Amino acid sequence: MSAPEFAPAGVIAPGKVFRDQEGKVAQLHGVGIQQFGDTFYAWGEDKTNGDRFTGVACYSSTDLATWTFLGHALAADENIEDLGPDRIIERPKVLQAPDSRYVMFLHVESGDYSYARLGWAVADRPEGPYTYLRSERPLGNISRDIGVFQDEDGTGYVLSEDREHGLHIYRLSADHLAVEEIVSTTLAPPSDHPLGSHGLESPAVVKHEGLYYLFGSELTGWDTNDNQYATATSLAGPWSEWNGFAPAGSCTFDSQTSVVVPVRGTETTSFVYVGDRWIREDLFHSAPVWLPLTLKDGVAELQWHEQWTVDTVTGVVS
Description:
By secondary structure, the chain is an all-beta fold. The chain contains 1 helix and 20 strands. About 0% of the residues lie in helices and about 45% in strands. The strands form 5 sheets. It has a 4-stranded antiparallel β-sheet, with no helix packed on it. It has a 4-stranded antiparallel β-sheet with strand order 5-6-7-8, with no helix packed on it. Strands 9-10-11-12 form a 4-stranded antiparallel β-sheet, with no helix packed on it.
C-alpha cells in the first residue's frame, strides 16, 4: 500500500491528508463541522483501531486548512456497552442546543451492522468531554448514517438513513435530546449498481437563499457513486428530482458526502463540500476530499481544484 500524500501547510488539497499541529494524521473521517464564533470545530471518527471505536477526535481551525487536535471529545469506554471496543461509532455530528449545551449525535453500531441506533452525548464545551446518554431507534426505525441541521429559528433536525423505508428527516425536541416527529422521508432514484437501492446514506442539508439543499450518497457499499442532491422550500417537501452535483461518472471525485459547511463572510457566503475517500484496508489514512461547492438558483455544482483556500472572514474562495 502506498504511503499517504499530505496536504501542504495552510491549503486544502483534495485527496491529500491533513496533519495536525504535531504532524500526525488528522482523524477527520465521517466528520461533522460547526462554526462557533470565529472558530470551526470538527469531530471525526478516530480510525486508529480500524472500524472499531477508538474515540471521537475533536479539532479546531480558523481557516479550514490548519487543524489543532484538542483530544477525544468522546472516548471508548469498556464500562458503557455502546462505547465498548466491539462497537462501531460513525458520523459524529454536533449541534448547540438553545440552553447552550452541545449535543453530539452518533451512528452506534454492532460489528454486523444489525444494531442500527442513534446515540446522544452532551457537553458544556464544543471540544467536550461529552457525557454519553443513550441510544435508540428513533420512532422505532433503524438508523445508520446520520446528518444534522439547525434552522434559522433554532429548530434542530437529524437526518437518518433507514434503508427499509428511505432517508428520514426528524425534528428534534427543543433541547435536542429527543426525536419528536418525521418531517419527511425521501427516496433516491434506483441505482444500476448491484448494491444500489432507493436509499440514501451520508446525508447533509444546508439552506441558502430560502432554499434547502439535501445531499446524499446512494447505497453502493464501499464503492463510490455519483452523489445526488434535491431541493425544497420546506424540509417537509415536496423535494425536487434528484440530480448529480459533480461531473457525471466522476463518482463525486471518488468520494462520499460527509457534510456541507457554510462559510458566511463579510463579502460572500461560500460552501465547502466535505467528503471522504474511504480506504477499506487502511481507514486511518483515508483521505478527505474537500472542495468549493457552488449553490445558485437551485443548482449545486462541484468542481475540482488541486489546491485551494477560503478566507473565513470574507468568505472568498481562492
